[in-house]
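Notes to self after the call with IL:
- keep both proteins in one doc
- input above output, always
- annotate only the second one for now

Protein 1:
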Amino acid sequence: MARGQLEPELERRVALLEKPDNQGKDYDGAAWAALILFGIALPLIALFIGRM
């Protein structure tokens, strides 16, 4: 295989991912709330409790 070329299967997968129909939707409000709660708020609470 020449340098800069992709294997046929990998090229097929990349082509599928480049289509707008296959790129998924943005997060909604509930997903953002869960991300903030589980990623920021709960770790901060755990750190605060751990220091007591």
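Protein 2 (the one to annotate):
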Amino acid sequence: MYVVKVFHGYISKEGRRTRDKTPRNLLVFYTKKDSEKFADKIGGRVKKLEEITKA
């Protein structure tokens, strides 16, 4: 699973930037291709969800 990172935060399910790293509150993509497509549209970058939950 992948999330989109922007400006010291992540995109939440509501479509806003949040600093909360809780996976249940984030907009989650199941394929890297879909997350990269969205990240390119908004100027963000893709991050694998496992990396967030380990920290």
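Annotation: The radius of gyration is 10 Å. The chain has a mean pLDDT of 92.
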